[in-house]
UniProtKB/TrEMBL annotation:
It catalyses: guanosine(37) in tRNA + S-adenosyl-L-methionine = N(1)-methylguanosine(37) in tRNA + S-adenosyl-L-homocysteine + H(+). S-adenosyl-L-methionine binds at G110, V129, G130, D131, F132, V133, M134. This is tRNA (guanine-N(1)-)-methyltransferase. It is an enzyme of class 2 (transferase). Specifically methylates guanosine-37 in various tRNAs. It comes from Deinococcus navajonensis. It holds the Pfam family tRNA_m1G_MT. GO terms for biological process: methylation. The keyword Cytoplasm applies. One of its GO terms (molecular function) is tRNA (guanine(37)-N1)-methyltransferase activity.
Amino acid sequence: MLRFSFLTLFPELLAPFAGEAIVGKARERGLIDVNLVNMRDYADNKHQKVDDSPYGGGAGMVIRVDVAERALRSLPAADEVVLLTPAGARFTQQVAEELASKSHLAFLCGRYEGFDARVEGLVTRELSVGDFVMMGGEAAAACILEAVARLVPGVLGDPESHQADSFSSGLLDYPEYTRPAVWQDQAVPDVLKGGNHAAVAAWRRAQALERTWRRRPDLLPHAGLTPQDTLTLQGLGATPEDLAEWGAPPAPVQRARKKRQGADPAP
């Protein structure tokens, strides 16, 4: 079981998210546990006041370090204590995979002007879900909960289903289709209906490469490109400079077919 502990001033924001859909079913099956900790319970004053005005002046209020420390101390030891902050490292699929290998993750969800800077000494890492500012860390925590929980063995029906997802392979995911076979003159590609699994796999890889090349070429240096991928990217229009930047290996040598030897056709 992987335990998630979220330290927040608004546990009611996370409670519905942690109780529905795949995350909720994973909790029911005992695959993950979600512990919502209200930091107001550790305010150590009758008004449950957790914040105070910043030293030096300025707008807003700051969450006290002693409150955060008491809330953290109430928990069993965590493998990672994560501060959700715009100053943190970018949360990626690779980070999600790393966190999914742990047994207990604790997350500090800020509000107002954030935490007293001394909280940084209580955490093992700082994470951000993007270059934007929200009103608190709960929405970011919900994103991380879902991204990490789905990687826990048994949470998804197919244990290999996440391996081809966007970012897991280093590429964006290939396009998916289902019924109807034709919709508003748009047909499902024939290769997906032919039953040739090797052809389907090759088509999907080529489509993932094309999507990534057109939409997120910044991912390609980390995609572990193969010689066949290089050939595909060349066909899409990638330049030698592009391929060198992405660390693409040389394309396979295309050998010319030999003509079959035999008797000349009869006149």
